[in-house]
Amino acid sequence: MAEECRDERFLYMISCFRPRLKQFIRVQPVLDRLPSLSPEDRERVRAAALQRGEVEGAEELLRAVERGPRGCGWFHEFLQALEQGGCRLAACYVNPSLSQLPSATEEADHDLCVHLVQLLHSTLVDKMQTVQVAEKCLQMGIFQEDDLDRIHTVTDNRGNRDGARELLSRIVQKKDWFSPFLVALRETQHGDLADDLSGNTGETENRQNGMKNSTNEETEVTSQLGYAVAEDLKQQENVNGSFSSENSVSETSIGKNSLVPESDVSIGDGSVSNLNENLGQSCTTSDSEEDEVESRVSPEPDLILRDYQMEVAKPALNGENIIICLPTGSGKTRVAVYITKDHLDRKKRASEPGKVIVLVNKVPLVEQHLRKEFNPFLKRWYQVIGLSGDSQLKISFPEVVRRNDVIISTAQILENSLLNAAKEDEEGVHLSDFSLIIIDECHHTQKEGVYNNIMRRYLKEKRKNRKLAKENKPLIPQPQILGLTASPGVGGATSNSKAEEHILKICANLDARRIMTVKEHASQLKNQVKEPYKKTVIADDKRRDPFRERITEIMSEIQNYCQLYPKSEFGTQPYEQWVIREEKKAAKEEKRKERVCAEHLKKYNDALQINDTIRMVDAYNHLNNFYKEEKSKKTVTSDDDDDDEPAVSKQDETDEFLIGLFQAKKKQLKELARKPEYENEKLIQLRNTLMEEFTKTEEPRGIIFTKTRLSAFALFQWIKDNPKFEEVGIKAHYLIGAGHNSEIKPMTQNEQREVIDKFRGGSVNLLIATTVAEEGLDIKECNIVIRYGLVTNEIAMLQARGRARADESTYALVASSVSGAVEREDVNIFREKMMYKAIERVQNMPQEEYLDKIENLQLQSIVEKQMKAKRDQQKTYKKTPSLVTFLCKNCHKPVCSGEDIQVIENMHHVSVKKDFQTLYHTKENKTLQDKHADYQTNGEIICKDCGQAWGNMMVHRGLDLPCLKIRNFVVVFEDKKTTKHIFKKWGELPIKFPSLDYAAHCPSSDED
User: Fold this and answer.
1) Where are the beta strands (DSSP E) in 928-1008?
2) At 904, is the secondary structure helix, strand, or coil?
3) Is-above-0.90 flag for pTM?
């Protein structure tokens, strides 16, 4: 019984002081001293520390300790591991005897000393000789060998400054560290640093030196510096009710791995609420000790809504399906958290099952919502988890749903599991497993989007329930639906009636009884969400552009050569669409000359668009890289190991003409690209706008939105190459998407997160972003948002403008006078007004009329889906593989038959044709190398006769297989009549290919 009581007290101490423990625990040394911890738990803890930092590793370790199993003496082992692993201060907090628990005064002293280090952090990092101080700290018993080894490693690998950061992050975790640290500084010739830290009076060090025998004198801070810090701490406490002493050096400026996520700052974990009552009944503890612990538990952040937030939340709190429409930066997600907690609390009180799933449309939003909103406010009462395609889970999605109360997930994961539930041999989930579904950025719930596919199931079940109700049969339980959006848009409407219909469709798709906007408390919302100053900067296009003139001359020569004459202007999108159509048409008709010329014309058109947006040199580089690659493809060396064999040119007359034409003009283009007098006028206007905005505010932060990854990267390079930007304090970085369908290397989710974190922290103050940053991502308030020639729709405009929400912020459009961007922006402003009017009309509609319209639109949506499914069924798999042949897109030689194609993991189409390798060469895949692809490839495969790319070699379970891209082939159907087609994706081909027969292609071996 005593052992059980002790265990409970130990768990209680962990729950009370969790935030401090997470700061004071060094994971690896403690893990090494916990032999009873299971290998699975050990690996989980180690992975968390490695991937997400020490604080998250410590959290995982505490969870493992709480989970058990707890054999005899388990808490004693953990205590010893903390003490022997150099975490004595953490050990003081978990010892159930309370004999070593630091008093409130000692805690305040510790925090004061930490704050002093924070204030002088940059001075310490700059001036401290790290290794000398660390070795002295080891001699004095402050550090252990583990600490010294780590500091040595960091200093050797990353330099003295990073070593100093590592030293400081470790020393503040030690018990009674401050006074010995000052001694160590003085004994290593750092007396000036010690004087700075102690305020030159020695008073602060005396405070910690005599902690155990405190006197009245020790409670006074007499040094000016100490007094200022104490006052600063008091002010912070007054300003923020949830301030707690965890605000230490390890969670601010020291070491990347020591950053404490917002969700970890001030919340206990687990079901601590009943522990106190149980302890009171089963343990013999004095009231004063209990009160001491209770008074020291870190407070939870308050989940309180502003009046305007409560106004839009009310119907959802009454269980209605609604859409909440609040502008960017007004706290939509906080409203969703409040509704979630209220919903689960009500279900708990009624003893009914409650489960909430929050659906998002972008992977980074999963972690963002989990870390910043749902976990901090809910984790004490409910199990919260985040899931995306990036999550490395050992258990199935249905099991995750069973184990947790709140699941934040990308919509596709839910959709996949709903599809699995319809299969007999698969485990899946049903919509009835949830009691509340929250759909973030719900304006995407339309057409064939994944949100709409999920909601169509819901609507079908709703109609089925009506039928079941008439038959007096049990109904299918249906979840409540909550949609969140900053702007539902008007769906391209040009009239008020069409805009109203669009709003009604979104409401119908989400089965919303009403769409909520702020009315009663509009003035409060206006104060909360600042409207930026808007301006339009027009670039004058009257300057001469000889670079463009040379490019158009080359394009005209190519058009005359291949007798192709467009009706569109060079450098426009209609021209691009025309040239793509011509390329496809020529490929099907086996007109190689026209096809290749069309491909090259597209590259020149790209160069004109780059020249209009960025620098001439970027356009020149784009063309130069393309022709380098073309030359490389058309010059093929033998696959044999004979190095003496000369390279063979595969250029035909057309290739020679096109490559020769570029080579002849190359020098002239290069010279023109270097002449600043012909530089893009838009760039000059962008530079002026940036200079003006970044010099008029103290802490400027901005985002430039641009159309393509190439332009984002090129603008970043332009800013880096121009020292004037650095002089005014601009620190730029690009932020682009994670997809692989571009020539520019994509950003991983981690890279995106890292850039956004730098932007939040201030080490980057200008983001150059594609549309990835417009919607949803948690990006710090900006005082300058520039749309650089990029105008899409009214939703994107509102999202981008919503990023400019700092005081006195500016929203600017920089565009050329003939681009049409200014006119499109005016259209968007008109559509925005149209949208708000349409929402108002829908809100004012009589309820009966509204519900009648919604029901008709829902029925229409279900019928449309059924018709589409029938059409898809008719065209899918109606042809057999033997009916098709694949021709090289460039030289039209037969490559393989449909019977030679097999599929790996329903995705990768490989050729298993015998002697297929005699038809192609392999070459280094520069694109994948440039993108630093993290999967194994053996290079690109190209046609042996003409150098046309076909696909890539891939390695599958030890087999080298040629993986083909269908867009590189002409597909010939030998049915009733022979037809030829070009496809972008394998999924467009109405044929089902068999899965790879691994055994048939695995090299046989007689060895055991």
Assistant:
1) 937-943, 949-956, 959-964, 969-974, 978-981
2) strand
3) no
